[in-house]
Automatic annotation (TrEMBL), chain A:
The modification 4-aspartylphosphate is found at residue 53. The keyword Transcription applies. It comes from Roseivivax sediminis. This is Response regulator receiver domain-containing protein. GO terms for biological process: phosphorelay signal transduction system.
Automatic annotation (TrEMBL), chain B:
Its main location: membrane. It comes from the Bacteria. This is histidine kinase. Keywords: Kinase, Membrane, Phosphoprotein, Transferase, Transmembrane, Transmembrane helix, Two-component regulatory system. Pfam families: HATPase_c, HisKA. The lineage of its organism: Bacteria, Pseudomonadati, Pseudomonadota, Alphaproteobacteria, Rhodobacterales. Belongs to the sodium:solute symporter (SSF) (TC 2.A.21) family. It comes from Roseivivax sediminis. GO terms for cellular component: membrane.
Length: 123, 895
């Protein structure tokens, strides 16, 4: 059974980099690049892990996170949040919104892999 | 003539003696040994200035002319001192508690410190007293001439005005020297009072000596004298009851109202308790003074040739008997009477004139009181000295011009009647709280006018009022005849004048008071005056010193707090060496306490409070006004505080606004930093990720390797561009930008911009529409900067125009003072909500697709501002439309 991961990110090059790294690690990577219908994408796709950027066109990652956490189906969904705004306040906001893990850009690839693996351990 | 010379010598010696007496008294007073000076006997004797030369000489003359009528002159004051003791005591108490300086001051203080009233009374006093002073000068001159004249002739038609002048100058000098040594009316004129007391003794001794000589020396004993009196026509003269009563009333009124009596009775009063002695001693003195009047008159009539001036019998009887020594003594008695009267009258009048007329005028001329402080004492003293000289000289002039012809007693009574006009206002003021300033003014005016009309002017003789007017009234109006007003005929002129002036005066005073409303200050003063005994406990009601100190303690505790008050009192008690915690209420202690209290409640209040408890001094109106002033200051202070608090709240609001602005700025700064962080971290993330992939992954194919490397390259370029933009914007916003101003065709600048934008573009889908003929305009500006703006706009259109066939129209409009360059694409345009923010830093229209940092338009706006033009969004053009405005100075029509 392949494990599916949904990457919600608007930067083309970052999408390509993360997709490359995760695919090589055996993940099926789906991508989505705007915030407006990101939550809908999660509902329809039901991925094993979500990687969510904060600054998305249309809607902020925090909003999407809060909406998903409000639904029982996604209360425990592992969500890794990425942000380019490296301030402490941003981390607090993410944590209060119910994030599973949080990473500041730029990150090292191994860090990213470790985080994703920790969120969805191999059964 | 040797007698006259000797007389002058005696006179000068006597004056010198008076100087010595006054001087010694002043010295003793200055040394603090005033117990002796403040004895009740001295006080009583000083009251004897009631007996002037008029009574000394004139009583005998009056007896000769009118029989026992002269007694009424003595009965009036005696009745006042004995029967109206309570009135006098009240006056003295008020005088002390209010620090009254003169009768004018008393009246003015009672009626709300009205200077109008003070001036009125002063003028009345000057008018009434000036003839009186003239009278004294005349009597001195006459008595001088008695010695120089042929006694057989006995007529003194040509008075020597030179003598009068010298006497006047001497008296003025004496008065100036001893009357203006100190300023405070409450500080007594010890020298003057002592000299007057001595003079009182001299005149009494002189008159008694003459009397004794007449009774025992000439008549041969009391029995013989009485027989002689019975035999003379004097005994048979019928005394008109009405006139007798009138004169008694008049002299009683005058005793209370005459400025000089008021001066010694009230102002110079050292101790209220002296009144007790004076109340019997003074009538006794008057009785002694009048004792031998009738014998002298009878003997004089017997001995001297018919037609001799009876006013000088006191002098001429001894002289005719060759008793020169006695005559000189008698002369000194008369001289004493005259001088003491002039001196005290001059002091009293000068105080009034300087306080109520000269000083107010001076203050007004020099611009008010606030700035006056140090030298005012000097000014007041000078004013007072000049006033003394002025008053005495006025008397002299009156004497010189009137010729001194009128009978002495007549002038005296006229003056009495004039001053008596103050009586209703004064008595009403101290006994009736309803009395008002208006009433007092009305009464005084009416009384003064009637006095002038019915008594004073007729008394001046036919030269002043035409005989026809006296007989038939003014303009033939009989009911207005000065001596038979309203048809009341047949009365004695004096009685007539007293009746009308006093009754109408009192009536006007009453009606005026009832019809008018007192001012608050009048009300206050009225209560102070009428209830003076409640307000100021007299010396007898002092409950003892310890009780007072305890009261002070209670008050001090209320104000200073228990601990501090106790500490203060204990400290003071220790300093005094007293046992226990309560110090003696010495002046030093009271002063210190007052200062302590003043620190808490203000000086005036502290003074008033201590005054209330210590007693003997009521709260003066100055004190109360000062309290009021303090309250006014407090109110002003609180108003200021209120203004300040308004100011403060405004400042606070401004601060709040500023803080809000700062917060907003700070939020903006945070947002800006956050944005920069985001813009920097995003390309870095790609760079790091791909460089790690390149480093760590050995199994990459060449295409992948190439692709990743070029992504890293592109992101590095993007980073560089971002940093360039940031620096550019920062310089444009804050730094000095050096502009490279040159002239060029607008079309060339647009060409450059389009070419540059095309060069950076990945695809050439954007169609650019231009009208080159419109672009044929020369502009003078920084061409590179303008091109930068154009490039930005073209690039934006290329990046963001989402039309299927994107097109950009560049339109040039040349106006008289500017050139407009519009960039209009055929996309969806920018929504109204975003239009306001597109020129802000990092502002990007939602759902943008290109990776711009959002600084482009911000930079454009800064550039255009620097170039003196503008860039704005142009709504209603179909697509996104920007208008660049190149200002007048930069644009020139191409020729």
């Amino acid at each position: 059974m392949t494990r599916e991961i949904l990457l919600i990110e608007d930067e083309r090059n970052i999408i390509e980099a993360i997709s490359f790294i995760l695919s090589r690690d055996g993940w099926t990577v789906r991508t989505h690049s705007n915030g407006t219908d990101a939550a809908e994408k999660v509902r329809s796709l039901r991925p094993d892990v979500v990687i969510l950027d904060v600054m998305l066109p249309g809607r902020s990652g925090y909003d999407i996170l809060r909406e998903l956490r409000g639904e029982p189906a996604f209360a425990d969904l592992p969500i890794l949040m990425l942000t380019a705004r490296g301030q402490a306040r941003d981390r607090e906001m993410a944590e209060s919104a119910g994030v599973s893990a949080y990473m500041t850009k730029p990150f090292s690839n191994s860090e990213m892999l470790d985080a994703v693996r920790a969120l969805a351990p191999v059964p | 003539m040797t007698t006259l010379n000797a007389l002058v010598a005696v006179c000068l010696s006597y004056v010198f003696f008076l100087f010595v007496v006054a001087f010694v008294a002043e010295r003793r007073a200055a040394a603090g040994r005033i117990r002796w000076l403040r004895s009740p006997i001295v006080y009583t004797l000083s009251l004897s200035i009631y007996c002037t030369a008029w009574t000394f000489y004139g009583a005998v003359g009056s007896a000769v002319r009118n029989g026992l009528e002269y007694v009424a002159i003595y009965v009036g004051p005696s009745l006042v001192m004995l029967g109206w003791f309570w009135v006098v005591r009240k006056l003295v108490r008020i005088g002390r508690s209010q620090r009254v300086t003169s009768i004018a001051d008393l009246v003015s203080a009672r009626y709300g410190k009205s200077n109008t009233l003070a001036v009125f009374v002063t003028i009345l006093a000057v008018a009434g007293v000036t003839p009186y002073i003239a009278l004294q000068l005349q009597s001195v001159t006459l008595s001088f001439e008695v010695f120089g004249a042929d006694l057989a002739g006995g007529r003194f038609d040509r008075p020597h005005t030179a003598t009068a002048l010298w006497v006047a100058v001497g008296l003025a000098l004496f008065t100036v020297i001893f009357g203006t040594r100190n300023l405070d009316a409450n500080e007594r004129h010890h020298g003057v009072v002592m000299a007057i007391a001595v003079e009182a003794v001299v005149k009494l001794v002189a008159l008694l000596s003459v009397g004794v000589f007449v009774v025992w020396g000439l008549s041969g004993g009391v029995t013989e004298t009485l027989a002689r009196i019975d035999a003379s026509e004097l005994g048979t003269w019928n005394v008109a009851g009405g006139r007798w009563a009138g004169i008694t009333f008049l002299s009683a009124a005058a005793f209370l109202c005459l400025p000089r009596i008021f001066q010694v009775l009230v102002v110079e009063a050292a101790d209220e308790s002296h009144l007790r002695t004076a109340s019997w001693a003074f009538p006794a003195y008057l009785m002694l003074m009048s004792l031998f009047v009738v014998p002298i008159a009878v003997v004089g009539l017997d001995l001297l040739p018919a037609g001799s001036n009876p006013d000088l019998f006191v002098l001429t009887v001894p002289l005719s008997q060759g008793q020169e020594g006695l005559a000189v003594l008698s002369f000194l008695g008369g001289f004493s009477s005259a001088t003491s009267m002039v001196i005290v009258a001059a002091i009293a009048l000068s105080t009034m004139v300087s306080n109520h007329i000269v000083m107010p005028i001076w203050l007004r001329l020099t611009g008010g009181g606030a700035s006056v402080s140090g030298d005012v004492r000097h000014i007041v003293l000078t004013a007072r000295r000049l006033s003394i000289a002025g008053v005495v000289m006025l008397g002299y002039l009156y004497y010189a011009f009137s010729g001194g012809g009128a009978a002495l007693a007549t002038i005296g009574l006229v003056a009495f009647a004039g001053m008596a006009q103050v009586l209703p206002a004064m008595l009403g003021g101290i006994f009736w709280r309803g009395a008002t300033r208006t009433g007092a003014l009305a009464g005084l005016s009416v009384g003064f006018a009637l006095w002038l009309y019915t008594l004073f002017l007729p008394s001046l003789g036919p030269g002043v009022l035409p005989v026809a007017m006296l007989d038939e009234g003014p303009l033939g109006l009989a009911f207005l005849r000065p001596q038979a007003l309203f048809g009341i005929d047949g009365l004695d002129p004096l009685l007539h004048a007293i009746f009308w002036s006093m009754s109408l005066n009192a009536g006007a005073f009453f009606v005026g008071s009832v019809l008018s409303f007192p001012t608050p200050l009048e009300r206050l003063q009225g209560a102070q005056f009428v209830n003076v005994f409640q307000h100021s406990p007299g010396p007898r009601s002092w409950a003892g010193r310890v009780a007072q100190t305890e009261d002070l303690m209670v008050m001090a505790q209320r104000i200073l707090g228990a601990t501090e008050a106790m500490a203060l009192f204990r400290r003071e008690a220790r300093a005094q060496g007293a046992r226990g915690d309560l110090p003696e209420p010495t002046p030093q202690f009271l002063e210190r306490l007052e200062r302590e209290l003043a620190g808490s409640v203000g000086a005036a209040t502290a003074h008033a409070m201590i005054g209330q408890i210590v007693g003997g001094m009521s709260v003066s109106v100055e004190d109360l006004m000062a309290v009021a002033d303090e309250s006014a200051q407090l109110m002003e202070y609180s108003a200021r505080l209120e203004a300040q608090s308004t100011e403060l709240s405004r400042t606070a609001r401004q601060l709040r606004d500023a803080n809000l602005k700062l917060t907003r700025l700070s939020v903006q700064k945070d947002a800006f930093l956050s944005q920069i962080s985001h813009e920097l971290r995003t390309p870095m993330t790609s760079i790091r990720a791909f460089s790690e992939i390149l480093r760590d992954s050995g199994r990459l194919d060449a295409g992948e390797r190439m692709r990743f490397a070029s992504i890293i390259h592109d992101e590095a370029v993007r980073l560089t561009r971002l940093l360039d933009d940031l620096l550019d914007l920062s310089v444009l916003e804050n730094g000095k930008v050096s502009l490279d101003i040159r002239a060029a065709r607008l079309s060339e600048v647009i060409d450059r911009a389009v070419a540059a934008a095309d060069a950076g573009a990945e695809d050439g889908a954007l169609t650019i529409r231009r009208d080159r003929s419109d672009e044929d305009v020369t502009i003078v500006t920084d061409l590179d900067r303008l091109a930068q703006v154009f490039i930005n706009l073209v690039s934006n259109a290329r990046k963001y125009c989402e039309a299927s066939a994107p097109a950009l129209t560049i339109r040039v409009l040349t106006e008289s003072d500017r050139v407009l360059v519009d960039f209009i694409d055929n996309g969806e345009g920018i929504g109204p909500e975003a239009r306001d923010t597109i020129f802000e830093k990092f502002s990007r229209v939602a759902e943008q697709k290109a990776g711009g940092a959002g600084l482009g338009l911000a930079i454009c706006r800064q550039i255009m501002a620097r170039l003196g033009g503008d860039i704005s969004y142009l709504p209603g053009q179909g697509g996104a439309a920007f208008r660049v405005e190149i200002a007048e100075a930069s644009a020139m029509a191409a020729q």
